[in-house]
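sanity check both lines:
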Amino acid sequence: MTEATDTAPGHRYTAALAGQIELRWQDYWADHGTYHAPNPAGPLAEEGKPVPSDKLFVQDMFPYPSGAGLHVGHPLGFIGTDVFARYHRMIGRNVLHTMGFDAFGLPAEQYAVQTGQHPRKTTEENIQTYLRQIRRLGLGHDERRRISTIDPEYYRWTQWIFLQIFNSWYDERAGKARPILELETEYAQDKRPTPDGRGWCELTRAEQRDIIDSHRLAYISEAPVNWCPGLGTVLSNEEVTPDGRSERGNFPVFRRNLRQWMMRITAYADRLVDDLDRLDWPEKVKSMQRNWIGRSHGARVAFAAGEQEIEAFTTRPDTLFGATYLVLAPEHPLVDELTAAQWPNAVTESWTGGAATPAEAIAGYRRAASRKSELDRQENKDKTGVFTGSYAVNPVNGKQIPIFVADYVLMGYGTGAIMAVPGQDQRDWDFAEKFELEIIRTVQPTDGFDGKAFTGDGVAINSAFLDGMGVDEAKKTIIEWLEEHRHGHGTVQYKLRDWLFSRQRYWGEPFPVVYDEDGRAHAIPDSMLPVELPEVDDYSPRTFEPEDADSEPSPPLSRAADWVEVTLDLGDGPKTYRRDTNTMPNWAGSCWYQLRYADPVNTERFVDPENERYWLGPRQAEHGATDPGGVDLYIGGVEHAVLHLLYSRFWQKVLHDLGYVSSDEPYRRLFNQGYIQAFAYVDSRGFYVPAEQVVETDGKFFFEGEEVKQEYGKMGKSLKNVVTPDEISENYGADTFRFYEMAMGPLDVSRPWATKDVVGAHRFLQRLWRLVVHEETGAVRVSEVEGTATEEDLKQLHRTIAGVREDYAEMRFNTAGAKLIELNNYLTKSYGSAEVTPRELAEPLVLMLAPLCPHVAEELWRRLGRSGSLAHGPFPIVEPRYLVQETVEYPIQVNGKVRARVTVPADAGTEDVQAAALADEKIVALTGGNAPRKVIVVPGRLVNVVL
């Protein structure tokens, strides 16, 4: 506790009083719908009352309701958005601010496997814990707009959006998605040629469907995945350790192809890159997305290999004369055909791996590679590989070059084959050194270079007709040569791969499709949505022997036989179909939640166009045609910089192309908050001890008398350093907690938590409370006589108003708090011992405090005789006349050190400032009455005297 309350004056602002005030005002806000933001249309519109044209949509990244609840690090961004939203609400804007829950996910399912308790029960209990905690913090949310991804009325529309993507294709000529029916019409009218040139009517219905399905934005493919037999599920790359084992359970993981749903996000690669320039996002996040998409300009080069042709992509076709071998990914479809029957003569053991035949070597290598994660394959410096026994022809010089299989080449990027140029690529150099392969430099290294592979730009060497050219000219020339001789062509390549959209889990959105007897997918009609999850007895997937790489997934939903087999009439009579037993990934629900926030109770549409345009539409008048639309401010951690944001952008662009939304980006402005970290303490055994019981003495730390070592990092249960907002609110009040978190530093910077420092924020609120409320009697000690405040009081006040308004608008909440402390200290010094505080000073101070500490501000506002809530303002307005400075103080530097200060009229000219500085008695003493060598006056800032 901050202080003993039994001896405190009866009306002091204590933690107990703060708690009473906070709970009372939270009830008031809920009862009066204080934070309800009206829509222009639908049930959330206010009848007969137009919506304000000035709106603001503020959104927090979807929290996952874990069983542990919140610790003090979680609400940092939530409080930041709340302060920002409250300020803008007070200046008259219609503010949409709410919070929902990204509630599907693996943790609840794992708990269900362990306990047999339905994941919905666990998740909903966790949601209630979160709601209790965030309500205690006084977050100003429109609770009518809360959503949860696990609610059928929400995932009905997630399934509906999936079907729009399924029933769409990307028209490269138009540069946008179009309905699949339009593609069928183009084929039927022979406006688009079929792959083999036959007329559309000559094809069977199955052949027609195969062509159409190959264009869909959501399609089924044999995709390489991380299959873990020991867990019975596919894992994401992030769930696989560098040594190719599952993070959970430490089981072996194998790369293998499985029939999976995919999203054709690669069709949008160029738009996803180019439109980043239209977004107000941190440059770091934009760079991460650009790197993830990995757009590269280069060439595809064809290498003849017997009857086969290997196509390799390279960003440096100018180095083609230095290609001394080819490398295929272990999964490359040509590996089997290029594997020779026996080894050629004079092949070293390093090329064969000690195997009797190439087939034996390749099979063993593939097995080993299947156990490695993609990250490990890319970053492992120990290069491995095996010779296929075959050779290819370098088209520029006719040389026979060996073909290897190596796991540092991935099928997901380029063609799954590379032309290896060891002279210009360090990975290729390492491989070539290990396997004693030829190395030819094709770019002249810069003077002084003494490394191995030279990866910089330079003049072409050892490259015949390219010699002497710079990189750009050489690239252009070789591409023209390749195209002229039909050995390749210039192209653009991407690292981005289509989005794997299937999960072998129970706790996720069911797919709104069924399969016929031929295994072909059919969309469920809108009238049959949502497809709800069935009840099952066992939530765990079927597991297998950890080494059984050939096992087949058997998800939990496959056990719900009555649900899987279903008879439906899809327009051609009742037939038996089979449902998909996989579920969507948890990314699905978070791809579009900003749209549902805008219209959360609409039962006819996922969002009404009028509501979408109002809250998310492009701001044409303000920003012109380049404004992408989207949420006005989106705050969350940088850990979601790539996948969540990329997937959301993809879904938004598809919906925009199809005409469902006016904005073609989901988030106009992005802000990444920092993190609150904490000290942890380790004893001599290496065990963590409870941080709250550690005592500091003379710079050392002790737990129960034993010295312990201090560490700094994340806050978490395992480190025994968790501090919850509940206990801080209990001991100091939620407003104190809010003020302290915002005052700790800039919102985008990580900072250490120190509970002992929270008392400083609490004492500030106590001093401010005393300016308005008499601690002994509870009476309001505010003067009703106008003109009581002095001229200097009003200057201090309006300087603070100007600074705080700017700080709130720019999310500099820590400096806004500092300015309020400074003003409060000034007023306390002037009026703390007086009987009353001038109302014209007290009221603006209370109003400026409201975004940071809404409960105590509401209470003081009410005690000042104001009715209702101050949530909608007014916010104090600056009177410019009080900002005019009459005098300016100049520091005077002599040879670079400040030696004196002089105050002059604010409108003093340079000569007057110089004269005043040289006349200062300290400067006269230093100069000895002699003229200085130089005097430099920086207007409004300083005088520099050079002796």
About this structure: Residues 678-713 form one domain. The chain has 30 helices and 33 strands. The CA atoms of residues 460 and 468 lie 5 Å apart. The radius of gyration is 34 Å.
